[in-house]
Amino acid sequence: MNNEEKIEHAKGLLREWKTTHHEEYCNFTDWMHDREGPGFIAVFNHAKAFMPQFETAVLLHIKDDSSNDVGHLEKMLVEGGMENHLLTGLNTPHIPGNIFLPMLAWMFYGRSFECMVEYGEDLIRNPKTNFLIRLGAKHHIKWIIKSSIALKGRTEEDWANFVEEQREMGSEPNVTAKTIAKLKTASEEIREFVKPAGKKGAPGRAARRRPLTELLPNGDNYLFDCIDNHVKIRNSGKDFAMLFIVLNEGQALARTNIVEFHSALSERYKDNPGIPIPTPRSIQEGHKSYMELTEYKGNKIRMFERPEYISEYNDIREKLSVADYMFAD
Q1: Which residues contact 70 (CB under 8 A, 6 or more apart)?
Q2: Rounded to whole angstroms, what are the CA distances from 174 to 138, 147, 171, 271?
Q3: Closest CA relative to residue 124, chosen from 112, 116, 115, 133
């Protein structure tokens, strides 16, 4: 197997482990989300047990007020053989105290990147935190976001959804929002979306999100009535993700993204309490899982194309008569 095939194989094993060890996985994620940081301390202890000099390198990095990058710490672990160390843990699941399986499953399929960024933002907001710790947290947040995008674990849109999620819960993730706004790969819409309230929209350039009627240019009353009836009974994050895929794959949807699609749905059903709209993040997670490549009978296909999902896809496509509303964007 080449490197990419090894990664896909490992991800398959982790997905299976997460399904068959759900309670153990949930206990681990709860541990990692504890704001006292016991999960992060345990992971760090494993790293320094593997490489004792890593602890000194981290402490010096924290104390160095001129340091603005953590790449050298990552390089230290990679060159020290951390990859093989993790693979050993992956292949020896029954060793007592082995946290590799839940940790790797969390890294691939949980809110790992978001959790680390949330923890960093919390440290920065706490006035009692040492200045050097806060400074280090700022650099760490930037590194996590950029690394997650480079690894294709997250997209700029994912991080925009994260910012919205934090604001909905009363937190302003300043470092995260500013980091996203400065990304060269971020669209103008995303840059506008993550701006703090009160700063959005320069004069004459106010951000505008299109309603559902504009996202479906060839739509008519029949299509919109069908969508209304569908979402009355199917309104989870994964349900809306599948609806987005059906409309997008059927070329009925104008060029858009989950953020704008969510906004259009929220606007259309804001006065209808019988149709709860999930968060954009939950729709994005559903979309990501459905679009993930998987192997079926020797071929690479997207997850929603597997037999257990494609019937739902076809049912919705037929019910909405999507082929009648194709749109050339």
Answers
A1: 61, 139, 140, 143
A2: 10, 19, 9, 32
A3: 133
